[in-house]
Every structure is written in C-alpha cells, then in structure tokens.
Amino acid sequence: MDFFSPDYWTLDTLTEVVGVITGILCVWLAARQNIWTFPVALVSVLLYIVIFYKARLYADMGLQVMFALLNFYGWYMWLHKGSQRVERPVTAMTKAQWGWLLLFVPVFTVGLGYYLHQHTDADLAYWDAGTTAVSLGAQWLMSRKKLENWLIWLVVDAVYVPIYLYKELYPTAGLYAIYLVLAWIGYRDWKKSMQPQTLSPGQAAG
C-alpha cells in the first residue's frame, strides 16, 4: 500500500491515524502516571470501535467498549485510595490476582472464540478472543496500578502486531509495535516509583 498515494488517505485511514496518535499518547501518559491518560484513552477507544467493526474484529471492538468502562474505573481508582482522595501507589500483583488472571484468560478465550466462530463472520475468532481476554486482564490491572500489567501488555502487544499486519491495518500494527517499547518503559518507570516494601524480594533484587 502506497502511503503517499491520495487514494490511501480515506476517512477510514484518517480515523485510524488519529486513533494511533491518541493511543500512543495515552500509553505514554500512563507510563508517566499522568491522570490525563484516561480522557485521551477514551478518544482512542471510541475511534477503534469503528475501526475494528469495519475490520470484522468483533472481539477487539467489544474490547474497546470494555476499555472505555475500565478507563472510567481507572480514572477513579488512580485518584482514590480506599475512601480517601489520595493518589494510588504502584503495587505488585497478589497471588489471588495471578490466579484470577490464569483462570479468566483461557475460559474467556474458549467461550468467546467459540461464539464468534459459530455465530459471526469474525476473522481470526480464537486469536481475537484470546488477545481480548489478556488485554482485559492487563487493563484491569493497570486501573489498579499493578506493576505487572506492563509485562502482560508486552506479551499481548507482540501478538497483536502480526494480527494487524494480516488485516492490513498497517498504522495500527505500527502502533502496537510502539506499544511494546512504551510497555517496557512503563514497567521500568513504575518499578522505580514503587516503595521498597511493596516489592517482592525477587523484584527488589532485579
């Protein structure tokens, strides 16, 4: 595809480019623990609802709706610790949260993947469902300022890149390649910001 051709720059392409720009900005703001990540993310997810619907990636489309809800949730959680209006600190995941994640991802993937495969014209149904499941878990953990959310994003973003190349969503594939870099930066910076007592022995040593 010729990016310099006038025929390439349709309304759909421009929508995707704006989605990419706001997507990069919201992840960069999240890595900086800046509360503006949430309103910027809402702009990006609204655009990607349209983009993924047209690409027949219905699980990813539904994921954007959940992202919108989780962004409102995260916006509140980042500003409150318990009943107090105090900025929430970065903490490590608990064993219970790891257990929930490891149970949720395969169950959600199989259930949604089967539904999409049997009842819709969705492309890459199980891959779409699996990346959606992992992304939901990662976004929920980010909303609660759990350090490991960035490591989970690293894994799922690496899977998203070839999926979007296959679907010829080239700006979006580039976006997720950039997300890989931003996820590592986010993990590094969040880890530095943690109080020593919130780190496990292994993390403190690392």
TrEMBL record:
<feature type="transmembrane region" description="Helical">
    <location>
        <begin position="100"/>
        <end position="118"/>
    </location>
</feature>
<comment type="similarity">
    <text>Belongs to the nicotinamide ribonucleoside (NR) uptake permease (TC 4.B.1) family.</text>
</comment>
<dbReference type="GO" id="GO:0034257">
    <property type="term" value="F:nicotinamide riboside transmembrane transporter activity"/>
</dbReference>
<feature type="transmembrane region" description="Helical">
    <location>
        <begin position="173"/>
        <end position="190"/>
    </location>
</feature>
<dbReference type="Pfam" id="PF04973">
    <property type="entry name" value="NMN_transporter"/>
</dbReference>
<feature type="transmembrane region" description="Helical">
    <location>
        <begin position="13"/>
        <end position="31"/>
    </location>
</feature>
<keyword id="KW-0472">Membrane</keyword>
<feature type="transmembrane region" description="Helical">
    <location>
        <begin position="38"/>
        <end position="55"/>
    </location>
</feature>
<protein>
    <recommendedName>
        <fullName>Nicotinamide riboside transporter PnuC</fullName>
    </recommendedName>
</protein>
<dbReference type="GO" id="GO:0005886">
    <property type="term" value="C:plasma membrane"/>
</dbReference>
<keyword id="KW-1133">Transmembrane helix</keyword>
<dbReference type="InterPro" id="IPR006419">
    <property type="entry name" value="NMN_transpt_PnuC"/>
</dbReference>
<feature type="transmembrane region" description="Helical">
    <location>
        <begin position="61"/>
        <end position="79"/>
    </location>
</feature>
<comment type="function">
    <text>Required for nicotinamide riboside transport across the inner membrane.</text>
</comment>
<keyword id="KW-0812">Transmembrane</keyword>
<keyword id="KW-1003">Cell membrane</keyword>
<keyword id="KW-0813">Transport</keyword>
